Structure formats: structure tokens, C-alpha cells
Amino acid sequence: MLLHYLKVAARQLLKYRTQNLISIIGLGVCLLCFSVCLYVGRFILSTDSCFEHRDRIAEVGLSLSEDGTPFAGTPAPLASRLRQMQWDEVEALTYVAYPDERLFDIEAKPGELFPFAPLTCLEVDSCFRQVFTPRIVAGSWQVATQTPNAVVLSERTARRLFGPQPADAIGRQLVTTRKLMYSSKRGGVSYTVQAVMADLPLNNSLSFMEPLDLLVLNDSDGLLAFERNGEMTGGFTYALLRRGGTAQSDLESRFRQRNTKFTLYEKEMDVTAGPFGQNFWAFSIASPMLWVMLALGTLVLVVGLLNFFYFQIGSFLGRSREYSLRRVLGGGTRHLTAQLFVQATLVVLLAFLLTFCLIELLTPRLHFTLMEWQLDIDPALLNVQCAQYLLGVLALSLVACLFTAMRARRADTQSALRGGNRHRMRTVMLGVQYFVCWVFVTLAAALYLQAGKTTSTLFGTLTRQEKADILSIPLDYSSLKQADKLALVERMKQHAGVADCLPADICYTRGVSGNLLFTAPPDDEHRHEVVVDLYSTPQNFFDFMHIPLLRGHAPENGHEMVADQTFEADMQDKQHESLMGTTLYDYQGSYTVSGICAPFVTSVYHADRGRGYFSGFGFLPSDPGQYMSHCYLKCHPGQTDEVRRHVLDLLTEALPYTIRPTVSTLLDDLEEMQGLESKLKGVVLFLAVVCVILTLLGVYAAITLDTERRRKEVAIRKVNGAGRRHIFRLFARSYGWILGITFVIAAPLLYILLQQWKQLYTVFFDDGPLFWLGIALLVTLVTVLTVAFRIDRIARVNPAEAVKTE
């Protein structure tokens, strides 16, 4: 019997080979997209599963005694104070500082120090291993806990720095080259590698999606040794509960019974306990990203499954005459269900085979970065997850086959033999496909328009092409002295493709030079603070950036400065006085405002900077000869790549072999600033294209099924004088209704979504009637072309031949 079912299934697949090929490709591509999205979602959901005691770890936090408002972190002394109080419910307490990046000169070869790229560090105490149980692969944790300035490297970092044997890292020195946040020393602090631990997976809440390079214990210049660490929050406190205890029912109640308090910012705080990961899910971007990935994956899977089942159920129901004859001959529902399921299973298996092939082909590219996030997708695990989804799709196929068999059983035999013309289920399925299509097309268009809007607004005095022709060159390398940097920049400028050079103290897209000025000298007790973002700029800054001066002139000496129009307007609004001619002070000297320039925009996101913070920017004079950590080169059109290669050659020659120099463009830096839009627009555009193509293929398959079923009707209409226009209207009317109704339903929902998204930005693209009209025309046009192409082929069929084959 199975062999018979396979023969019938093969004949049906060959009979509608085009439609089945569409179903297989569509389902395979959608399953790939769904699998990747759900891989990321499951990866986020399994955060902290790598920790053996995950279910026994509680997060100890603080909240205001007045209203219960929680703090995101805790002070460093909290863990030690709680240890002194001795809790029966707690087995161990540990404090983990926020992750930070440190620059080291590293003893890559015995007795020789070399600079390396920044390493991501976690400062921890000696109880860290008892709570989080990292696996030590070389060295000794006990030695590390008893050694000042001890380092525990991750295995990946140890192999990268010291070779394939992790044990070779033990005893090597790491020397800081920059001042640490809580240190009074300007570098030169020495650390010793005492152990190597197994790599933590990226989905851990301690350093989520950022590879952790090392742990630091007993840090003489870290937060735990900082004498004022009780006046700030700088990390998280964790408690390992004894077996059988829970954070909520035991430790939290004990905190309340003993009225446990901690004073912070001169306010009395309640000590609280909650489940491990509550701060991570409450304050990180992981939760929104989880929902975004699950939503995108689910929507694209819905389109793929609907496209698949649309044709499968349509082709099943189109064989109603065959089913009725089977009933007349004594066939039962069970046999019909089995026959249909065998056919559906063949198509599903072919679709999954295509998915597995695509995974193998795309394996080298399954690496994603989003802002600071990094994720490498494991192809083997992705294949396993796809195999799990196979069972789900087969179960849905069985339901569809059972539905078809039950419907055939209930159908009137005579009506089925004559054939019917109602296809409500297929119409609903196509409508859902169009709804999802509207969602993806709208979001893709919105992301691209918003990304373009923000890119043009940021550093808006430059055109997009000018931003692409400006090279952004980091020079903040510890091995380069100031004289070396100046000489290096002079060699860069000598290239014929360089039009202008702008030395800078910072990268202008990653921060500001300062934010504090005074209305009087700093030692004057009557002074008032003027808090505003400040840039230290050389004399050619305004010409280089094409920033026009609206009033006054650019700084001509070291005691003049320029304010932008936004700063000037905010000052007039709050202080009712003009900045022009005003003298402001900092700890280095005084500056008279000599000019007002056009607004300078470096961020398009709404941000609450608090009371007293002025909008806009102030531009102070700087001397690049004294300090320079960045450089911008403006290139002649068409010579940017050549200049980039020249700069990379010079940097490679000047830097040690352990440093890989990078050179980007100002446009690249701006796109990195708005990483969410830049990355998501490509993902959503790809999914939108997939959804549109599958929806159109679904329309094509639907028209094919309709025309095959109504070949005789079309032939008779042509004999009676119907032209192509009449035949087009006959078949296209229903698709027009589906298109219009789904747009009317989707547009208001999408409009509300865009208005919520709009609140994040200070500038937003024009989402008026022309935006919606353009989307509607685009989808309508491709639908009309698809329908017209198929109907034109049907209209060319000879009526006599159609009647003969009917």
C-alpha cells in the first residue's frame, strides 16, 4: 500500500511540478530564516544556563526605602558587610564589577612586552568560583585568590596571546598602559596570569554577547580596593543559596525580618533579593531583541507555511472528484489521509533537504554583529534545531491532510463530482500572507528611510559622499608617542589623494572632550556651572566639516571659542542672555565666545540629560601638537581606497606585529553609531523580499489552480467573445479584494507602531500619505504584473484544445 501511495504522490508532484517547486523553495528558504531567528531567540532564552548553580543563585540588590524604587547595581562593600552578618540561607556571597576594557602591554614572549588590542575584563572577588564555578584548565584558582593583581585568562584569549598550550600563559605579565577608572596611576600597573579558565558562552549575563577575556582578582587599582567604593554602584552582588532555599521565600524574608539596610547617596536603602538574571532582563537590550527575533522568525515562517499549505490544500481540494469516486468504490477516510500525508511528507522532506543544504553553503557567513554584540552560529546545532522543526511541520501537514479527508467525507458526492467554486480557506490563507507582506515591506521601507535620514542628519553639514571620502584613523596606540603620531600624520598627508587633514583628541563619533564650563574662574565661589558637550578642535575644524559661522568668527587664538546655534538658543531660553561675547572658564583658562555656528548634530536619539544640562555644543581651541589620538583625512573623489591602503601600510610599518590597525570612513563610523537601524534594515529587507516573493508565488500558484480548474469555462467565454481584459477581470477581482482588505487592516496597526518608534528620535522620516501610497503602489504593481503574466498565458490557449483536454 505504501508503494502505491508513493506512486500516486510522485505523479501528483510531477503533474504540478512548477507549483510544487515553488512550495519546496519557499518553505525551505522560510525555514532557514525561521531557524536562524529562533536560534538567536533560543540562545538568548538560555542565558546563564552555563552556570552549574544557576537555580541557587540570587541577585542581591538595593531599593529606596521610601517607594521601593530599585537600583540597577550595588556598591562593592555590600557583599563583605553581608558576609559579616552571617546568613543561614547563604552558602557564599560574591561581588562582580561591571565589565570594562583595559589596554595592556603583554609579555607575549618571555621578557618582552608587546601592546595588544583592548581586553574585556571582569573584576571579581575570591568567592566568584564558588558561586559561578568556572572550570580551571591550567594554573590554580587558590593561588590566584592569594596573589595581588592576579589574572585568570579565558582559554580562547590564552591561546591567542601565548600559543596553543594554555599552561604557557601561567606566570606571564600584563602591564596597563592607561589610567584605570579607580586608579591614581597613569598606567604601569602589573598583573600576573595565575590560571586559565574554560571560555564562558556568550549567553551569560555577566558579559552578554561580549567575549570575556580575563578575570582580575585582588586588584590594587580596581573598584574593590577603591577607598570611596561605598559611595557608588559599580557592579552586582550575588548570593549562592544553600540547597532547598529560594531567593524570594527565604533570603528576601530574612532581609525583612532583620531590617537589613545600606546607606547610599545619603539615603537609606533596603537590601533585597531576587532571582538570578532579573537585572539582566530588566535593564539590558536582550529582552527587546528576543521579542524582535521571535516576531521576525514567526512571521516569515507563517508566510512560508501558508504558501506551502495554500497550494497543498488547494491541490488536495481540487481532487474532489477523485475522492468522491473513492467513496463510491468503498475508500475510507484513513486511506485517503494516508495517501495525502505521504505526498505532503515528500514535499516537506525535500524542503528541509534544501534548508540543510543552504545551512552548509552559508556556514562561513553565519556570524552576526550588532553594535557590541557578537554571535557565531553553530551549524551543527542549527541543523539539530531544524530537525526538531521538521517534526512540527510534519504534524501540521498531518492535520491539513486529516482536514482535507474529513471535508471530502462530508461533501455531497454529486456536488463533488460536478466540482465546486468556493475556496474560503485558501482565500483566508492568502490574506494572511498579504498581511505579513505589508508588515515586512513597511518595516523595511521605514528602516531604510530612517537610516538614510539619520545618516544625513548626523554631521549634516557634510554630504553623504563627503562623509564616505573622509578617512577616520585611530592613533590611540600605547606604542606611539606624540612625536611619532605627528610624524606619521605628516607622512599620511603627503599622499596626492589627501585634500585636507583634521587632527583630533578623540573620535568625534564616540564621545566628547568634556562637558563642564564655569561663568567665573573655578576658584571663584560665585561661579555657576555651564554643563554642555564640548569638543576640542583645531583651527581648520569648521572649514573641514563645512560648518558655517552664522555670527562672529572662528577662534583666532587659544582664548576664543565657538558655540553652536542650539547651545545659544538654549542659553537664551534658560538664562535669557546671549552667548556672543560671553567669557566662560575651565580649569585650563578662559574662553570668549567669538562666534555662533550652525547646529552640530551627533545624535538623533532623545536623551534626558537631567536638569542644568544645555543642549548643543561648545568648541574649544586645541593644539594637536600637545595631544592627538585620532586623525581625519579628507580625500579627493575616487581616491579614498588608494589613500586607505597607503595609511594602512604606514600604520602596519609603525606598529608592533601584535596590533592590527583599522581605518574606516566617517560614514562607517556614523553607521556604527546607529547600529540597530543599520543592521536591522538589511535583515528586514531580506525577509521582506522573501515574503513578497513567496506571496507572489502563492498568487501565481493560486491562479494556476483556478485556471486549471476553469479551463473549460475560459474556453467557452472566449468562444462567446470574451477578450483578455474580461478574462483578467474574471480572475483578478478576488485578488484585488484580498490586497485592499489586508492593506486596510494592516495600515492602521503599522501606523501606530511607527508612531511609537518615532518617539525615540529627534528627527524622523516623512511617514505621511506619500509613504503609504508608495508602499501600496509597490505591492499592487508587483501583484498586478504577476496576475497579468499568468492570465496572459491562459488567454492564449486555443479554446478547442482546452475543451478537448477537459
Automatic annotation (TrEMBL):
Entry keyword annotation includes Transmembrane helix: yes
A GO MF label: transmembrane transporter activity
Statement: the UniProt record of this protein carries the keyword Glycoprotein: no
Any one cellular-component term (Gene Ontology): plasma membrane
Entry's transmembrane regions: 21-45, 289-317, 338-362, 382-406, 427-449, 683-703, 734-754, 770-789
Pfam families: FtsX, MacB_PCD
Membrane topology per record: Multi-pass membrane protein
Principal place of residence: membrane
Domain of life: Bacteria
ABC3 transporter permease C-terminal domain: residues covered: 296-411, 686-799
MacB-like periplasmic core domain residues: 22-210
Subcellular localization(s) per the UniProt record: Cell membrane
UniProt entry keywords in alphabetical sequence: Cell membrane, Membrane, Transmembrane, Transmembrane helix
Stated name of the protein: ABC transporter permease
Organism listed in the record: Candidatus Bacteroides pullicola
Lineage, top ranks: Bacteria, Pseudomonadati, Bacteroidota, Bacteroidia, Bacteroidales
